[in-house]
Amino acid sequence: MKRPSLPVNTPLVDRLPPETRVQRRRLRACHECDWISALPPLGSGEKASCPRCSHVLVKRHRYPAQRSMALAIAALIALIVAVSFPFVSFNVSGVGNRIELSQTATTLIAFHQPVVAIIVIMTIAVLPAVYLLSVIWLQFGLLHGKPLAFSRDIARSLAHLTPWMMADVFIIGALVSLIKVAGMAEIELGISFWAFCVFAILLLMTTQSIDADWMWFSLEGEPLAPEGTQTGMTASRQDLTGCPTCGLINAFSRGRKSRCIRCHEKLHHRLPFSLQRTWALLGAATIMYIPANVYPIMTTTSLGHSGSSTIIGGVVQLMQMGSWPVAAVIFIASVIVPVGKLLALSWLCIAVQRSGRPNTISRTKLYRITEFIGRWSMVDVFVVAILVALIRAGSLMSITPGPAALAFSSVVVLTMLAAMTFDPRLIWDAPETKASTSDNRHSGSH
């Protein structure tokens, strides 16, 4: 068994990984295909993947608690700087405006777009701040050998917060906005802009540095897997289920509510009504996508003349201005990604109900891609938020949000929820379930 080469004065939480403190096999059920496998001893930078679908089960880091705490503190400082100084300013013909980061949301409220404003401020500042404070709270307690109050509940919330933090997407939206304005006015980037870029990078590094397996073991230990648990087969066939939050394998009784014995997360054999909920969310997203493209997403006033532009109209306008790369970014984020996600999830919902089990690997990869790219559609919403706050020079030049902003924000949120409610394990076990159902019917007829 590998031993970490760390100094003896390193805090216990960082000095000894779980496998060196437990002299037994540690089992995991894959979240994507339900396959049970044993975790091998891991060194720094190594990872353990599911042998069936290649989903990463555990990724080990060197000094996990110290690393994530240091990154979280640095990211929080960068965020404080980003919200305390001017973000960007513009000047045209002696008239200009300077905004702070928070104004990208508060200005939307003045234009009767409170829902979009809440989405913007929550995804770029509030949720990331909560996440970083949670990481600091958790790791501070672990580094001192005594978890602080509410640590288990806070640790459980980390995985749920991660998909909704979009600082990196906001940076892309800011760059697109500045490129669109650069040809019409002089742009000056403030301290806040650069601080937010640093914050986005540090936030991403913080989320990547979290070693959930190590963290949960340090918080709550690791109870034994149910007696008789076998590797090399699915958990559902053994009336077991893997916790989606801490990874622990639990016994599961169908038809009865249960929670993980380690982190108290709700357990399900499969996400209840997964396909029905996914179809409902996809239907709602499809309906909202129509007004998102039919109605204007923003209205631009220049020298007293106003003109509205839809998402596609904005792409065409950028192409006419010669900004092909920016037009490509907006087209991919606002058209290809949401439409592709709707089609991909619809196809997966249909595919899991077919008999046979071909292309399970490719279907699982499609699901992973679909889940990953969904948040990037928010680029266009962030572009609108930044331009509306920045370009406010009366009849000389101003931009106001259109009704499509709310509709398109709804599309992004609904498609993200649809991906979350779809249970990828159905890709692998739907044929088995059908076969089992068929066998039950035949046995009942004799």
Give the helix/strand layout.
Elements: H1 12-15, H2 18-21, E1 26-29, E2 36-39, E3 47-49, E4 56-59, H3 64-82, E5 86-92, E6 95-100, H4 103-110, H5 114-143, H6 151-161, H7 167-182, E7 186-189, H8 191-209, H9 212-220, E8 240-242, E9 249-251, E10 258-259, E11 266-267, H10 274-294, E12 298-302, E13 305-309, H11 311-320, H12 324-351, H13 360-373, H14 379-390, E14 392-393, E15 397-401, H15 404-421, H16 425-445
Antiparallel strand pairs: 1-2, 3-4, 5-6, 5-7, 8-9, 10-11, 12-13, 12-15, 14-15
Helix pairs in contact: 3-5, 3-8, 4-5, 4-14, 5-6, 7-14, 10-12, 10-15, 11-12, 12-13, 12-15
List keywords for this structure.
single chain; 446 residues; alpha+beta; four-stranded antiparallel beta sheet; three-stranded antiparallel beta sheet; 16 helices; 55% helix; globular; disordered C terminus
- Provide the residue-averaged pLDDT: 86
Coarse structural class: alpha+beta
Continuous helix count: 16
**Strand content range:** 5-15%
Q: C-alpha Rg, in Å? A: 25 Å
Helix content: 40-55%
Q: Can you summarize the main beta sheet?
A: 4 strands, antiparallel
Distance between the termini: 54 Å
Principal-axes geometry comes out as globular
User: Got a strand count?
Assistant: 15
Looking across the biggest beta sheet, what order are the strands in?
13-12-15-14
> Which stretches are low in confidence, meaning pLDDT under 50 for 5 or more residues running?
432-446
